[in-house]
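Treating backbone geometry as a discrete language has practical consequences that deserve illustration. The sequence in question and its structure tokens are set out directly beneath this paragraph.
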Amino acid sequence: QVQLVESGGGLMHTGGSLRLSCAASGSTFSINATAWYRQAPGKQRELVAAIGDGGGTNYAASVKGRFTISCDNAKNIVYLQINSLKPEDTGVYYCNAVALESGSGGPEDSVDYWGEGTQVTVSS
């Protein structure tokens, strides 16, 4: 079991910066990848940034160069640094973690965990 709690969202102006945090607890040792998603009003949830255990990262084209995903393994926190905010960045940002967990007497299963989300609003 993994629990994820996001924080750091708020109301910002265009050009501002935010740092979102995702605190993980529970069986954090089983996590092998984390990511940030966002969902704008009237749109489907989309991948914003992802990071694997090996340190490899992946970003959506719309945020590359402005967003940075990182993690503090000692504190079990994943960060999303957001710079040069744009109105189109507005949405609910969700933390995602992929964990490998053993089933009941079976092989490991890949399990997705999600936080409740944190609202980011950017005004022009």
The first strand starts at residue 2 and ends at 7. The chain has no helices and eleven strands. The chain has a mean pLDDT of 95. Residues 16 and 85 are 5 Å apart (CA to CA).
